[in-house]
Structure formats: C-alpha cells, structure tokens
Specification:
Elements (H helix, E strand, L loop, with lengths): L4 H9 L2 H14 L4 H12 L3 H9 L4 H7 L12 E2 L2 E2 L6 H17 L4 H4 L4
Antiparallel strand pairs: 1-2
Length: 121
Amino acid sequence: MSTTSTHDERIAKMIFASVYPLYLAKVEKKGRTKEELNQVIEWLTGFGDAKLQELINDRVTFESFFQQAKLNVNAPLITGVICGYRIEEIKNTLTKQARYLDKLVDELAKGRKMEKILRSS
C-alpha cells in the first residue's frame, strides 16, 4: 500500500511534541523507560536529550524535526510493516523517516532487545 500526498502532508505538519507523549506512554505501559525511548530517538536522529527537549519545547513539525536530524546510516535496515505500510515501499522520504521512528518505538514497546532495535548486531 502506498501513501497518498494527503497522508504525507498530514505527517509533515504533525507536531512532534504532540506525538512524543504518546510514544512515551506506549513504551512505559510495556515496562520500558523514557531513557530507552530517548536512546532510540537519538540513535535514529542524532538528537541528544537537550536538543530533543528543545525541539519539543519549540513544537516543531515532523518536517522540521527530520530536516534537522542526521539520520543514522543504518536506518534503511529498519524494515517491516507499521501502520499498514511496508516501510521499504514508502516513496516519500519524510513519511519513511517518520515510519522508521514509529517502528523503533513499536519494537521498544514489544520488548525487543536494545541491540536489535539499534541494528547493532
């Protein structure tokens, strides 16, 4: 299933600060921590805790969030289906990056080992 331009635009305009608490609630409900969530976000984007908090406080859009990110070179190793879309088939770069993040959060919540989530081994 491919994304539509409306879908891609909706993701681009979404405020990261409005989604972050949902990510946090999802992982904490499954026994994971804010520190682990932030570690996953840092691995993907390069944002440390201070920069992440700044982006949340500035209420940046996903478009701005990923424009400022330095995506991990191993991000393309993130594959599979998330939200009904096969990540490797998504054409829009921003939508693909957002789904990378969704997939990492999902793996964290499902109890996957951190070295597997971070594509270390």
